[in-house]
């Protein structure tokens, strides 16, 4: 009798847990995640097949790769704070006629208004990187909306940029809910398919190192992530652009991306 009661109790618990999972699938199965990918080697496509979040990224139309049948590249920069190198980056982009997008935080907008205006005046996009750079999986949906709206309002007021439609989640941390709420607010989340550890200002290894790290990962449809706090990136950017073009690549703005792909 006791065994039967225990068995029934176990079945009841299992049924309750199944109901909870069914009612709250996001909490149970869909995050948080920290964006990562298998790097491109020898021109082969990178992969997010084994990261556990590919379906979520696809469901919300987030960007990982562009058209992988064409030798197109998309240059993106994260701007959390200014370290003295963004003017050089902008100089190179202007000289080489390369469009880019800069994802800015509230701190950056307040601290560097002239650089933000220069980005827009020189034809680049300015994207949202949140107001305070929080882990957005740990704040409410309303707080997410507030984080995004404050950046959008300030950039629009400062530059006249009428639309802000791209978001890069702070630290690459996201969940199904973060992507859903931001998409509902008019944003396309932008991840990346080329990156290296460039953000540590205490571990800069020279322009040659930056050049090799980026060029080794180039592939069709690549979304390149660089941080403007990196001295190495500022020094290597011109050579990276020249080498990519030598290999037959063309740089495009995210607004020109017509096809999103997610690897094999």
TrEMBL record:
Which PROSITE patterns does UniProt cross-reference here?
Answer: NODB
- Gene3D superfamilies reported in the protein's UniProt record: Glycoside hydrolase/deacetylase
Q: Name the domain of life this protein comes from.
A: Bacteria
Where does the UniProt annotation place the signal sequence?
1-28
- Reply yes or no: does the keyword DNA repair apply: no
Q: SUPFAM superfamilies, alphabetically?
A: Glycoside hydrolase/deacetylase
Task: Give TM segment ranges.
Answer: none
Q: Where is the NodB homology domain?
A: 71-252
Q: Which UniProt keywords apply?
A: Signal
Do you know which PANTHER family this protein is assigned to? GLYCOSYL TRANSFERASE-RELATED, PEPTIDOGLYCAN-N-ACETYLMURAMIC ACID DEACETYLASE PDAA
Q: Which NCBIfam families match?
A: spore_pdaA
**Name of the protein in question:** Delta-lactam-biosynthetic de-N-acetylase
Q: Which organism is it from?
A: Paenibacillus glycanilyticus
